[in-house]
Specification:
This protein is of the alpha+beta class. The chain is built from three helices and five strands. Strands 3-4-5 form a three-stranded antiparallel beta sheet. Strands 1-2 form a two-stranded antiparallel ribbon. It has one domain. Helices cover 29% and strands 35% of the residues.
């Protein structure tokens, strides 16, 4: 939903994998990306106020970990 609403992406890849007893959800798109280049952890996203707020909240409720990789103008993963 966030990708469609905010990114302007034409293509999206969603993967769900199980690794060592944990689930890993990966979403990659070719949209606008976030207003930073590189990879930011959940702690860095929180400190700078960047990244998807709703997704950060959901990950926190699930006691998960979040990382966002972004290339402005070329998408996020």
């Amino acid at each position: 939903m966030n990708v469609r609403k905010h990114s302007g992406a034409r293509n999206v890849l969603v993967r769900l994998a199980q690794r060592t007893g944990n689930l890993q959800l990966t979403v990659e798109d070719d949209g606008r990306g976030f207003p930073f280049s590189g990879r930011m952890s959940e702690v860095e996203l929180e400190a700078t106020g960047k990244g998807p707020l709703v997704i950060r909240e959901r990950v926190r409720l699930l006691a998960g970990e979040l990382a966002v990789e972004s290339t402005p103008g070329h998408g996020a993963g």
